[in-house]
UniProtKB/TrEMBL annotation:
The keyword Transferase applies. This is Acetyltransferase, CysE/LacA/LpxA/NodL family. It comes from Stigmatella aurantiaca (strain DW4/3-1). It holds the Pfam family Hexapep_2. GO terms for molecular function: O-acyltransferase activity. Transmembrane segments: none annotated.
Length: 148
């Protein structure tokens, strides 16, 4: 783990880092977050587990600038954003997944094992196993099993 990485844990918002995992300089991680074995979190990636938490499976790669936020603010028009209720359902990312540079994953999403999230994609819905997703919002554009 790079000494410049910023990790935050507090009561009820723990961090678990699996063996062989790496966290690069300027990465930001705020629990609750569980990183499986051999996970890499690259520079400027940002993971905030909210209350629901983020769980990252073994061998997953999170590229530079990716953002995973496991919470959301309400949008009611009758009160300021700072006074809106916060919801948090959590994010699950499977094993052997690649989250591309500057991609975003929103609260409540599950990314299946072996999936790829393209650079700059914004994931707002669940991603099936083996799927390749791209775009804003992200949509399935391929299947890793067909990329030999």
């Amino acid at each position: 783990m790079a000494p410049e990485a910023r990790l935050f844990a507090e009561p009820g918002r723990t961090l678990v880092i699996g063996s062989g995992s790496s966290i690069a300089a300027d990465a930001f991680i705020h629990g609750p977050v569980v990183l499986g074995r051999g996970v890499s979190v690259n520079a400027r990636a940002s993971l905030d587990g909210g209350v629901g938490g983020i769980h990252i499976g073994d061998g997953t790669r999170i590229a530079t600038g990716a953002a995973l936020y496991a919470f959301n603010h309400g949008l009611a028009p009758d009160r300021p954003i700072r006074e809106q209720p916060v919801t948090s359902r959590g994010i699950r990312v499977g094993a052997d997944v690649w989250i591309g540079a500057n991609a975003g994953v929103t609260d409540g999403v599950t990314v299946g094992d072996h999936a790829v999230v393209a650079m700059g994609a914004v994931v707002t819905r669940d991603v099936p196993e083996w799927a390749i997703v791209a775009g804003v919002p992200a949509r399935v554009v391929g299947d890793r099993r067909q990329k030999r």
